[in-house]
Amino acid sequence: MNPPDLFTLFLLILTGFIAGVCNAVAGGGTFFTLPIFLAAGLPPVLANASNAVAVWPGHILASIGYRDILLKERKTLIRACVIGLFGALIGAYALMAIGNARFRVLIPVLIFIATALFASGARIHHFFNAHKTIPSRSFSLDQPNLWGVLIQLALAIYGGFFSAGLGVMLMAMLLLFGVHDMQRNNAYKNAIASVISTVAVVTFISMGLVAWSYTLPAFVAGVVGGVVGTRMAQKLPAVLMKRIVILTGVILSLYYAWTIYLH
What is d(CA 164, CA 110) in angstroms, rounded to the nearest whole number? Predict the structure, then answer.
């Protein structure tokens, strides 16, 4: 595959940096990078896998900030991370098996679902916080029942297949499991997402599904954006960033629905 032209390279670096900042401040960085990989002419499966590698550092960098919590409560997370590992493998192999034509049809739906989840994140959190007595009778992160394992597995499969919106899903799951302290919730979310994304990325690389000449510029820019975003997080309004991400997601879902379903 030919390397990106200068304009595409510029867009990969720019959106990679924006994605890094967004992921550090409010999340949703995938909405900025994935369209550039697709617009560059990469096949949909290759574009999605390459994008997953490009935005991979996000949860890892975030987890470092919660290392004290994670080290103290690592036993609690082991089961969830093991389930996440197997689910991510299933999702990553499902992406390869589905093929470009079928995955292309799913793109508008996946972006719309991810946007809706991202936009509804606060409402989901408020709902489960208002029903704190429900999870304790049914679910536990330490010893989940069958439904709890299936929920974790389903989210991990989704994360291995298409990662956008995974963070919101995991935070909602953790609230359902009774993790209502938001510092612990965010720490757990980033740790589990790190496992899922790392397994998916390693799988994609081993399958040869990464267009490195496109991925590396966005990857490096994303790391820089994540560092800058971490410093800006206290100053940059997260609400504003969230609204920009939601608007971008809506526009992209409509655009891809128009181009894929109506053309």
Answer: 8
Whether 55 and 222 have beta carbons less than 8 Å apart is answered as yes
pTM of the model: 0.83
DSSP string over the chain: -PPPPHHHHHHHHHHHHHHHHHHHHTS-THHHHHHHHHHTT--HHHHHHHHHHHTTHHHHHHHHTTHHHHHHTHHHHHHHHHHHHHHHHHHHHHHHHHHHHHHHHHHHHHHHHHHHHHHTHHHHHHHHHHTTHHHHHH--SSS--HHHHHHHHHHHHHHHH--TTHHHHHHHHHHHTT---HHHHHHHHHHHHHHHHHHHHHHHHHHT---HHHHHHHHHHHHHHHHHHHHHTTTS-HHHHHHHHHHHHHHHHHHHHHHHH--
Please give the backbone phi and psi of residue 164, each rounded to the nearest 5 degrees, phi first: -60, 130
For the stretch 134-171, pLDDT in tens is 544 455 666 667 888 898 999 999 999 988 878 878 88
